[in-house]
Amino acid sequence: MEKIPSRRIFRALRELNDKEFKEFGKFISSPYHNSNKNLITYYNFLERYHPKFKEVKTTHERIYAALFPGKKFNYGILRNLNSEMVTLFKEFLAYSNYKKKTIQVDCNLLEELRKRKLESLFNREFKSTFEKIDSMQTRDEDYYLNKFSLESELNKYFDEKLTIGTALTFYKGKINEINDLTNYFIIAIFKEYIIQISGGGKIDFEKSLILHDELLSYISSNLDYYKQIDIIYLLYNFLVLLKESENEDVYNNLKKILKEKRHTINDYDIKTFYVELYNYCKRKQSEGSKKYGLESFEMLKNMIELGVFFNENGNMSDHNYINIAASAFRINESNWAENFIKVYKEKLPFEKREIAFNYNNAVLNFRKGKDSPDRDVYYEKALGFLSEINVDNFYYMTRVKNLSLQIYYELNEIDLALGMINTYKHYLSRDIVMPKNLKLSYLNYIHYVSKLIKIKTGSKIIHTTRIKKEISRNENMAYKGWLLERIKELEMKELS
């Protein structure tokens, strides 16, 4: 038995839910969209296999016989039907997407009414569309683009209707049109700036921040005006915070605006803003601020309640799953973290579920072992979880190596620790995607673990006082807290 011939159409239709699949059937059955009745028959045949098309096995001949009873098999006809079905599927997706954008549909209608000189219908439709836009609570870039499109149609209407002597209305309308387009541009490009600047801390790439400084300067010079446009004022403050990370007043102002203006911001932007605020807290915490450790954890709990970390399917990314648990561990909320790890495992994407779950459990057991008489048992469990992680990307590889190295050091497995340092150095030297600052922080980390191992194994050349100062002064050091704790242990040993 061979698989059904049109794998492409089966893969495509599998992505439609039951409601969408039925709508696709109506689309195919409409003479306006489809004049080939054989496609309707083909849809009815396919309907019995939705949604698990991947489980279906049959032959070309059997499909053809079901579509054309008593006719001699012709593969060319079946191939053409598959091709036409794919074309209709793409048209259906485009049409469905278009219908969702109701304001754009209205503006397209206004364009046709204007061109056909149907003034009475144009005026009624314009008033209805204007009221629809004006009633929107969310004032994002789509809002201003919709306003611009509507103003543009109205100005074209006036341009065709008014004489030179009575064209003041037209030119006043042009001012509104320009303001709406400018607001759309500022919102859109500010969002792109934030994505690029934030992304620069995750992977190394060449950023393009054309007009960044000029636009920030322009907003700053007209701040009273832009304070009235919530989304622009928010984005401006986020960009200032990214530029002036020491400015805590901006951080506090952003929290205040988000709380007060929540109703004017769309859900996607709310999620983005909270993530950026959390990242700021995390950076401040890594610099040694205990206040921001508690702040970031409370913010995370609020974000979970708000659904910030979940996509439209209710799933959470593996990165968020790991970062949330890590935030709890950093302020010794291990019980909360353990419950979180168990409860939200099923919310992870299937392909990353076990990887992220194993990593979080490795950290959990490492934390449990720190002050336990059964330390070695917990540490061996942690290494067991780490050994189950086999994935080739730096996000996981560095985490696995960093934690393994700490465990080997604390278990006094010197040979394993030195072997890990050697392979880790080679890994970092070969990687071309990791941001340079992140790579340097890991290189600094393993450099000082090497020195600690030398002291631990009896070296008299290296002194704890000196490397303690070096680590404390280094602003780009991963796991600085852990390193300083190990130095403290070595100092205590020297005194005993």
What this model shows, in words?
The longest helix is centred in the middle third of the chain and has 32 residues, at 168-199. Among the domains are: 7-100, no CATH class; 102-197, no CATH class; 392-496, no CATH class. It has helices at residues 7-13, 18-29, 37-47, 60-67, 75-100, 102-115, 119-134, 141-161, 168-199, 212-221, 223-226, 230-243, 248-260, 267-286, 290-306, 318-330, 334-343, 350-369, 375-387, 394-410, 414-430, 436-456, 464-473, 480-495. The chain has 496 residues and is mostly helical.
Low-pLDDT stretches are 1-5
- The secondary-structure element order is HHHHHHHHHHHHHHHHHHHHHHHH
Helix-and-strand structural type: mainly alpha
Q: Give the count of helical stretches.
A: 24
Q: Radius of gyration, rounded?
A: 30 Å
Number of strands: 0
What is the share of helical residues? over 70%
Gap between N and C termini? 77 Å
Mean pLDDT, to the nearest integer, reads 89
Backbone shape? flat
Q: Strand count, sense and closure of the main sheet?
A: none
Q: What fraction of the residues are assigned to beta strands by DSSP?
A: under 5%
Name the features.
mainly alpha; 496 residues; 24 helices; disordered N terminus
Question: How would you briefly describe this protein structure?
Answer:
The protein is mainly alpha-helical and 496 residues long.
